[in-house]
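Review this:
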Amino acid sequence: MAAGERRLTGGAVGRRALLIANPKSRSGGDPDTVAALLREAGLDPLCPAADGQGAAALIRAHAPEVDRVVLAGGDGTMNAAAPALLDTGLPFAVIPLGTGNDLARTLGIPEDPAAAARVAAEGRLRAIDVGMANDVPFFNVASVGFGVDLTRALTGDAKRKWGKLGYAVAGLRVLARMRPFSAAIRCGDQVVRSRTVHVAVGNGRHYGGGMTVSERSEIDDGKLNVFSLEVGGVWGLLRLLPALRRGDHGRWQEVLAAEGREVEIRTRRRRAVNTDGEITTRTPVLFRVLPGAVRVFVPQPEEEEEAPVEVSAALPPG
């Protein structure tokens, strides 16, 4: 190998990794601990001091120095990094240290940090879609209504104290004051009016600590999946919970479901929009999908065997 040349690893050039760790994540995002795991896996981590900078600013500042980004945290950390990943084109890896870890679940990233670090070093690259809510990128899901109220109720303290159970604790608080609202939903060329408690637009497969956007949804299918819960009250929503977890809620009469590359939601009064657990924009909101916009390291197939070489193909001609 010539001097200065860097070896191809997992489909990406070089082994220099920018580590972005969220120290406030529930499972602990201590940069020194995560950096040690990355070194054991064979990567050379760069761990800059944040100095008040967010994930996107750090990625942009250090992009020329690294070959990949390692995000250690929850879905909020992934969401914060998304704009810079789009801008720089750097591939990224996930060390799931949050509460829901829905992007990691969608991608099949192991929960064990050491195993996830090995995927960051030796995984294969997968191109995945990114959703846009107005100008805000998201990986998993965006929502209006119940999802926004749940985000407001699910405080950082509740996540650290209750973990995934915190979703249920916060959900019970929100259910008590849940009220339907009217929304005009455009998917492609079709417009419907919905009396709803929750409208969600999914790009990935999982959200909300393990709920499923749709039984057919994938994060690289080039489509958005939208559904509106037209339930009359608390008991109607509770009846739907098992279906929402499985992803077959689209079969229910109380659920309006559609899919497409562009979705628009308008409400009578402006409502907050939640993207991957963060309140980031407001209605009216235009959703679109950016197919294959970023690359992420995912586990290698369990059985990756080289195809047998045909003897005839290996022989020289003649």
Q: What stands out?
A: The chain has two domains: 12-122, 136-291. The two ends are 34 Å apart (CA to CA).
